[in-house]
């Protein structure tokens, strides 16, 4: 299966200079409108936004350096501030795939598309996570939704969807071969016993020969005679001409 590594999304990174500018503006607003509760709320909100963007950015930097566990901690901290942020879930799903934790990756990507169903990159990440679980049909659907939102994305079309369709064709071919093998085994198991011709000339001749041999053996009987002196004599007798032992015989065994 194709390997999908961490990829920073466009517009995700916020420069430190911009963050510092926001902080300066918030401090100025606090000094100018010290007694204005509305400005206090606005300044607190701005500081929260700055902190959130810093956490996102730090997590992205950690992910680029393959420090995935630390990146997840940063994004989980950011999710405490904004639990509805789809971008955080989408990035978290990416690094979970890099850690080969596919079930949590699918869950994080599903959270992303639930919070922003119009995010093509969230649908793309969900499709990749579904491929990691072997859910090829679901992955194809997710890639198709991503393309529906952003039709001009060559990456989803040429890489993701093309790869998923190739896997789907291979899966269908394997399934067809398995079904054919099972049908063949079933046919072999139900193959009828050959219908032998027991009245053929060859079989009749063999049976006749066996019968003649048995008849000859039954007509000739062998008798073992032991005399008083200990001599042993084997005598073959016929039914119509029995052999009569003399008076010196004391043992007769068949």
UniProtKB/TrEMBL annotation:
Record InterPro entries: TPR-containing (IPR052658), TPR-like_helical_dom_sf (IPR011990), TPR_rpt (IPR019734)
Ranges of biased composition (kind: Acidic residues): 25-37
The TPR repeat ranges on this chain: 120-153
Region (Disordered): 14-37
Highest taxon, organism lineage: Eukaryota
Keywords: TPR repeat
UniProt keyword Chaperone present: no
Protein name (database record): TTC33 protein
Gene: Ttc33
